Amino acid sequence: MRLIEHTGEVELIGAGDFDPSLIFECGQCFRWNAGEDGAYTGVALGRAARVRREGGSIFISGTAADFEDVWRGYFDLELDYESVRNQLSVDTFMKKACAYGAGIRIMRQDKWEALCSFIISQCNNIPRIKKIIESLCSLYGDRVVFEGGDYCTFPAAERIAALSEGDLAPIRCGYRAEYILGAANAVASGALDLEALSRAAQGEARSALKALRGVGDKVADCVLLYGLHMLDSFPLDVWMKRAVAANYGSGFDPAVFAPYAGIAQQYMFHYTRSTAGQ
DNA sequence: AAACAGGCCTAAA
DNA sequence: TTTAGGCCTGTT
């Protein structure tokens, strides 16, 4: 990959699989939105940015230093996703899913943000999930100005731990408020060390997450994959259960996709949802 | 109007 | 170990 620094943004040439619309809309994140020009703007890791594809290049706002400090890791640019796709194309279904999802990458999101976001996601639809998260950020995040617009960071666990259920009432997250506060307290107090968990064994990290009220198998697996970047974690939501049942039956074991079962899940998820009803 | 949406918890077999 | 019902809220 070649990097060219322009004024206000960097250009990536030969970044490999990198389709902003797939990355931001395949269900792994909630805070990147497409503008009229097709460019995505979002706030991540405390800063706002814009990402777009033009020709064969990817443009990310900021300096080369920003890119090295934040975005190279955030977009997981060290992993060759084309090679992963080839590795995962083990049968007819996965060949189709991988081809369909070429351009997807699994981001390294903020760990606390992933935990909190996927707690909110339970039994909810994407528009409402995004609405609740934006409301949480605008109430309790920090303001950042970017290209003349006003944005908000995702509030730190410490900030939310200091709140009450009443403080969360305006975000309209319903019964999840109690779960959010519990998780925030666990993280803020140090009882749950997400940084340490990301270096622990997957099973151990999963158990620690599931010890939180409001975190079951599905949310825990999403946090492992999207927050702790454990690429072998295989979240099973209702769509994935249908997809697995339809294509593999009951004896399926995601270990056939090791060590990238989580990426396999992402291709399957996106392919299944996008082609639903066709 | 009733069901459903990217689950989780509890109680009961 | 598996299953049913309830849960906040918004949308269809």
Structure, explained:
With 278 residues, the chain is of the alpha+beta class. Helices cover 47% and strands 14% of the residues. The protein has 14 helices and 8 strands. The protein has helices at 20-25, 64-74, 81-88, 92-100, 111-121, 126-140, 157-161, 165-168, 176-189, 194-197, 202-210, 217-227, 238-248, 261-274, and strands at 2-6, 9-13, 32-34, 40-44, 47-54, 57-61, 143-146, 149-152. The strands form 2 sheets. Strands 1-2-6-5-4-3 form a 6-stranded antiparallel β-sheet. Helix 4 (92-100) crosses helix 14 and helix 11 (202-210) crosses helix 12. The longest helix is centred in the middle third of the chain and has 15 residues, at 126-140. The model has no long low-confidence stretch (mean pLDDT 97).
